[in-house]
Amino acid sequence: MPPPSGTTAHPPPEVLISEVGPRDGLQSVKTTMPSADKCAWLDALVAAGLREIEVASFVPAKRLPQMADAAHVVRHACRHPGLTVVALVPNLRGAQDALRAGAHKLTLPVSASAAHALANTRKTPAGMVEEVRAIARLRDELSPGTRLEVGISTAFGCSLQGPVPPDDVVRLAAECIAAGADESGLSDTVGYAHPAQVRSLFRRLRAEIGEHAGAAHMHNTRGLGLANCFAAWDAGVRTFDASLGGLGGCPHAPGASGNVVTEDLVFMFQAMGIRTGIDLEKLFAARQALAAGLPGEPLYGMTPQAGLPKGFGQRP
Q1: pLDDT digits 0-9 by tens, 224-274
Q2: How is residue 244 annotated by DSSP?
C-alpha cells in the first residue's frame, strides 16, 4: 500500500540495531529501576525507531531483583505495534514464563567457556544445548511463531577460563541450531575481541550455519566495541546488540563492562550511509528517560556529548 499523500516512506533499514539496555544494562546496576520508569524508557526507545528491544530477563527475583517485573514489562512492550519484544531465558522455567507473558523472541545464553557456563547458568555447555532442545520443544507446542535465539557467550575469550578455542564456539553454535534454535549469534562477553578475530570467527560461523548466523553482541571494555561491530558487518552480520548509554556487563564474568553504546553505533552506521531506521535526535532524548529512572547512574557515549556534525544528514 503506498504512503498517504504528503508523506514520505522511508526505505527499510539495512542493519537491525537490537537494544539490550532494559535487560543487559539494568541487570548490571545495583539500583532497581521502577516499573513505570522502565515502561517510559521503552516508549522513548520505540519513538526513536528501535524495532527490536530485549526488555527483560526471566530469572528468580531473589537472584536479579531488577528483573522482578519482567512479565509486566513484556506485556507493556507488546502494546507497541511493529516492535519485536525479546526476553532472555536461562532455562525451561524462564521460557515458560516468557511465553506466557507474550514475548515474541526468546534469547538463551549458551557459554562456550565451561567455567562461565557453570557460573552463569549452573550447567555445562552440553547441558545448555539440552536446555535449548527442551525450550524449542516447548516453544513448538505453545507458540510456534516465537523465535528462539542463542547467543554464544564468551565466544572470543573468558575472564574465568582464558582463551576459548574457535572450534568449540562454531561447534556449539551448530549444536544449538540442530537442537531447535532459529539463530545463533556471538557475544564478546568480557571485551576480549579484536577486529581480525571478530571477522574471522563470524565468517566461520556463517560458513557453518549459513542463514542461521545471528547477531554480534560486542562490549567496549577495551575500547574496541565499534571497531568490532564494523568487522562483524564486514563479515556479513546485519544485526547488532547495543545498549543506550553503554549500560551493561555480565554479573557472572569478572571484568565485563561496557556494552557498545547504541547512540555511537547508530551514528557510525548512518555516517557510513547505512540505514538503521533510527532517529538520532530522538535516541538522544531517550537518554533523559533512562536518567530519570536511574538518577546518578553514569551514562556513556561520545556522540551524545559531542552532538551531530554540522550538516550531518540523517538517513534513518
Answers
A1: 999 999 999 999 999 999 999 999 755 444 444 589 999 999 999 999 999
A2: G
